[in-house]
Structures are given as C-alpha cells and as structure tokens.
Design brief:
The chain is an alpha+beta fold and about 375 residues long. The protein contains six helices and twelve strands. The chain is elongated, with a radius of gyration of 56 Å.
C-alpha cells in the first residue's frame, strides 16, 4: 500500500485537486438563468435517484407480497362464510317471494286497492317563513301550475310536508317538523301505527303508540296512508330514541329521511290513482283454497226423518206403495164360504186327451145298459 501511494502520489494529488476544483465550480455555477439550481445539486440528485428507485421498488414489492399473503390466509374461510350467506339469502328470497305472492292473491280476493303516484310537479324552494315557531317554506309553483291545498310534497329521499297556502305563482309548504303538522305513519318492523308531529325545537316525534309496545332504535318508518294525503309506503325516517311519554304513550323521536333544513328542489304530488290488485286464474284458485282452509264450512242439511205423512203429497203418476193391496189382504166376510185357492192347471198333451174321456165314459155306464133318451 505504501509503495502504491509513494509511486502514484503525484497523480493522486492531481486527481484530488481536479476533483475539488470541479466540485467548487459545480457549487458556484448555476444551470441557467431561469433555474436557480446549483450544478452540484443536479449531479447529486442524478446519482442518488437510481438507488432511491431501487429501494422504493423493493419496499413496494415486499409490502405487496406481504399484504397479499395476509389476505390470502383468510380467503378460504371468507369464501365459506360468503357461500353460507348466499344460501341463506336465497332461502330468504324464496320465502319472501312466496309471502309476496300470497299477499297479492289475498289482496286480489279482498278487492284491495292501493294509491299510486301518477303525476308530480317539480318545484324549487325560494324562501322560508323566517320564524322560529313555524316551520314552512315557499316554492315557485302555484295555482297556475295546478297546485292545491293539502297536496303532498316529497323528495327523492322522503316526505317533506303538505301545501298549506296556494298563490297564483307560489305556494307555502308546511313541513312535517312543524307543531301543527300531522302524518299517519307505520313502523315497518313492528307494524305499529302512530302520528308524526313536530316539536317547538324542530324535531319530529311519533305519538299515539302504547307504552307496552316494543320499539327499537334504528327501525325504519314509512307513511301509512291513513291521513289521505301521503300515499302508503313513502319513506319517513328512522327511529333515533324511544322514551316514555304522557298518558301511557311512548314518545318516539325520529330522524327524518329528507334533510328539511337543506331543501332545494321538491316534488308536489298533483294526482293519485287507486289501482286494484290483480291475479291470474291459477293464483285466484290457490288463494280461494287458502281462504277455504281458514273460513268455517257450511254444515250439511240434516235428512227429513220426522216429517209428517200428511205433509207429503203422493205423486199421481206413480203407484202408492204405502197403501195395502185390498185384493191380496182382504179379510173374510161373515157367513161367506171362503174361496179355495186356485191352483194352476197343467196343460194336457195331445196324446193323452182322448184316453181320459173314454175311461170316464166306460166307468159311468156299461155299453149294454145305455138307453137312448
């Protein structure tokens, strides 16, 4: 090593001096007037970037392989659980389809009618009432567009309210969270019906539900159609809290499905149509069988056993079998000789007709004693 340094000492000092000189120039010289970057920084970045790329590529590859390995460990168990869930959902779908078909058949047999939304008018919210006591908004459609009072106002997410006042080019909508509002609702899981009203603070509560009923938070609520304003089945909201109220009733707080404080566009139901549920002949027959199993049957008519003979009139065209035959069962009269029974007389043959006659003649008189009269 000492011989190498001693032999090439001058050359090494020259290379080192040139390197320091170039390094100093690189630190002073800029790449251009537009870019205020030292040349030494560019060289360092170009020298270090390939190593950084290799490190990042290796790290990314290791992370990808590791995460894939961890994910693949539970794939088989997850697939098994998903298969079981799919089978359960298929069974549930079959059961629900059968229940729905049976409900349609029974609705058709009972002449059940439902209300459907046939026509709506889109409107834009242009203002509010500006009062903390009342909850209402104004829309840009009025009587000129066919709007009337007590028409339902909805959005794509749920109900909003009803039209309270109508003007030629605008209308006032009373929201469901107002104190004077009232909407007939039904809880979808427990099928309990109540009345949706607003509070002074702008919240929505359900009243007229008995305290002994079980209502759980998170249960969905829809319209019942009992108020004759909103059609049945429109989303209202979800139950947020349940606590005892007054007069043995529950107070159920509701989270509205529609954002009542951020209304921009609404739909006004201008026309509703009642449709009757229909079913084909096969389904009606099955529904009739279902009803026949649940309804009591009519008992059979008892036989007429205690009827009086006088009430039954004989038919003149048929012989009366109830009367006795006089000729066969006639009683003997006093002093009269009973008639001997008549026996059937056998028919004599042609060969023996002359012999009995001659025998009788010879027995009555001999041939010599016969005298002519």
């Amino acid at each position: 090593m000492e011989s190498f340094l001693g032999r090439y000492r001058n050359l090494l000092i020259l290379v080192l001096a040139l390197f320091v000189q170039v390094l100093g120039l690189a630190m002073q010289v800029k790449r251009g007037e537009a870019e205020n970057t030292r040349l030494i920084r560019i060289w360092v970045v170009d020298a270090v970037t390939p190593f950084e790329r290799v490190v990042v590529w290796a790290q990314t590859g290791v992370d990808h392989v590791w995460h894939n390995y961890l994910n693949l460990r539970g794939v088989r168990a997850e697939n098994r659980q998903l298969r079981e869930q799919i089978e359960q959902m298929r069974l549930q779908e079959v059961r629900l389809s059968e229940d729905a078909a049976q409900a349609r058949r029974l609705q058709a047999l009972l002449s059940f009618k439902e209300q459907y939304i046939e026509k709506t008018v889109a409107a834009q919210v242009i203002g509010t009432c500006g009062s903390d006591v009342s909850r209402c908004v104004y829309i840009d459609k009025g009587s000129n567009d066919g709007l009337k009072t007590d028409m339902a106002v909805i959005t794509g997410s749920g109900i909003v309210g009803k039209i309270l006042l109508v003007y030629p080019s605008s209308a006032q909508v009373l929201l469901v969270n107002d104190q004077s509002s009232g909407v007939g609702v039904i809880l979808e899981k427990s099928r309990l019906q109540g009345v949706l009203r607003g509070t002074a603070s702008g919240e929505t509560v359900i009243e007229r539900v008995m305290s002994d009923e079980q209502v759980e938070p998170g249960e969905a609520v829809s319209t019942s159609g009992g108020d004759q304003i909103f059609p049945k089945g429109l989303p209202v909201g979800t139950v947020s809290r349940v606590f005892p109220g007054k007069d043995l009733f529950l107070t159920i707080r509701l989270r509205p499905a529609a954002s009542l404080s951020r209304l921009e566009e609404v739909l006004v139901i201008t026309q509703k149509q009642e449709r009757q549920a229909l079913a084909d002949d096969q389904t009606r027959q099955r529904a009739a069988d279902i009803l026949a199993q649940h309804l009591p049957s009519v008992p059979d008519k008892p036989p007429v056993a205690d009827a009086k003979p006088d009430s039954i009139k004989p038919d003149a065209t048929k012989p009366d079998v109830t009367k006795p035959d006089v000729t066969k069962n006639a009683l003997p009269v006093a002093g009269a000789t009973p008639a001997a029974p008549v026996k059937p007389r056998p028919k004599p043959s042609t060969a023996s007709t002359t012999a009995p006659a001659q025998t009788a003649a010879t027995q009555q008189a001999p041939a010599g004693d016969v005298k002519p009269q």
